[in-house]
Amino acid sequence: MGKKDDFFLNKFPKYYEIKKYLKKMEKKYPRNVRLEDIGCSVEGRPIRMIVIQEDQRSPKQAVMIEAGIHAREWLTHTTVLYIIQHIVKHQRILRHMDFYIIPCLNPDGYEYSHKHNRLWRKNMNKNGFKDKTHWGVDLNRNFSYGYGLDNGSSSDPQSLVYRGPYCLSEPEAQSLASALYVYGKYIKLYIAIHCYGNTIMYPWGFTEKPIPDEKDLYDCAVKAQRAMKCAYSKSCFTVGCMSKTVYLSSGATADYARGAYNIKFSYTMELHKAGKSGFTPRPSMIVNVAKETLVGVLEMVKYVDRYYKCNTKTYARSRIKLRDRRYE
Ligand SMILES: [Zn+2]
What residues sit in the active site (predicted)? Predict the structure, then answer.
């Protein structure tokens, strides 16, 4: 891997640079990498997903990682590019799981945050208004599971958490929904990456009602939390249910992955707060945040892989028992 492939560790890339980088990975690792356009943004930019597999002919259970749904969260883009780079370079983890990664779900907003307003969060739907203050839908409130609650989203276009006129109204949200529709059957672990907050959170976001298998979701997240702490002593993440750890959020992706696709291990990870202002970190923060997150993500992948391998064995054993009984 040449030095140029590391460019995003020294500066925050523009969207065209992210696309170029993904293309390069596909060219360099044709056996393991393929790109897929899962849809288009409001302004017509392609939304690209990178699929990384040990063997493209036989898909395995997989992890889906989504970043950049909120435009200003630039560390999420660089962090997943780093994760991609690590996976293609050290392919051992691919023996366990395939990876479906969307490094920038909100390309219009991302461009806007580079060119005009560093703190832009939503997409670039004008919502029928001339006035900028009414622009944008919070894509992470536009999904159909638990959609539309006033406690956790807003019907006001001026709000930072405007949920859009109806669920999945936004093309960017539709893109992710269609990727899940096609590949959901393989996905065993879903991670929505945001920044900042030092948290690993599981559903639900739209209600404080606990999820029945909370313990499994908690255990997996704690493994990641501890691995990160072990690798980087300053690492300090909180684990918990989304609605109680931060705030209620209605129509978010992690709830959707769990609620609509029954992906048991579904998380929202808020990255390490880098610097005084969490939303405008210096480029020098990119490497540390990326490295720390990678440790956590890989730990979760291993946990989920083990979880399903063990459970499949138990399942296979119970079937043998049943069959034996029939012969008694
Ligand atoms: Zn966010």
Answer: 270
Question: Positive or negative, the Cα torsion across 270, 275, 277, 281?
Answer: negative
Q: Model confidence over 172-225: pLDDT tens digits?
A: 999 999 999 999 999 999 999 999 999 999 999 999 999 999 999 999 999 999
Q: Can you tell me the distance from the alpha carbon of 76 to that of 3, in angstroms, rounded to the nearest whole number?
A: 21
Q: Give residue 70 CA to ligand 1 midpoint distance, Å.
A: 5
Query: Domain 3-327's class?
Result: alpha beta
Q: For 58, which DSSP code?
A: S
The DSSP call for residue 272 is: P
Q: What is the pTM of this model?
A: 0.94
Question: Separation of 167 CA from ligand 1 center, angstroms?
Answer: 18
* pLDDT (tens digit per residue) in 79-127: 999 999 999 999 999 999 999 999 999 999 999 999 999 999 999 999 9
Respond yes or no: is residue 208 known to be catalytic. no
CA of 199 to the centre of ligand 1 (A): 12
* 122 Cα: distance to centroid of ligand 1 (angstroms): 10
Would you kindly state where each structural domain of the chain is located, as residue ranges? Answer: 3-327
Catalytic residue among 66, 170, 270, 299: 270
Q: How many residues does the chain have?
A: 328
